[in-house]
Description:
Layout: E1 6-10, H1 16-25, E2 33-37, E3 44-46, H2 52-58, E4 64-68
Amino acid sequence: xxxxxxxxxxxxxxxxxxxxxxxxxxxxxxxxxxxxxxxxxxxxxxxxxxxxxxxxxxxxxxxxxxxxx
Length: 69
């Protein structure tokens, strides 16, 4: 159940490294994340399809990560 439900968490200077690890884990490994919503463009990236390592490196303050509960 905890891998299905998500919580949108905004990236800031204090949590960026932890959220990068969740993005790399992706949706199948707990704890992980399902989506990234870019701050600038409002694009929603599905982490089961996109390159997770690249997206983790591109993560910036203000983005939203939909992580596992």
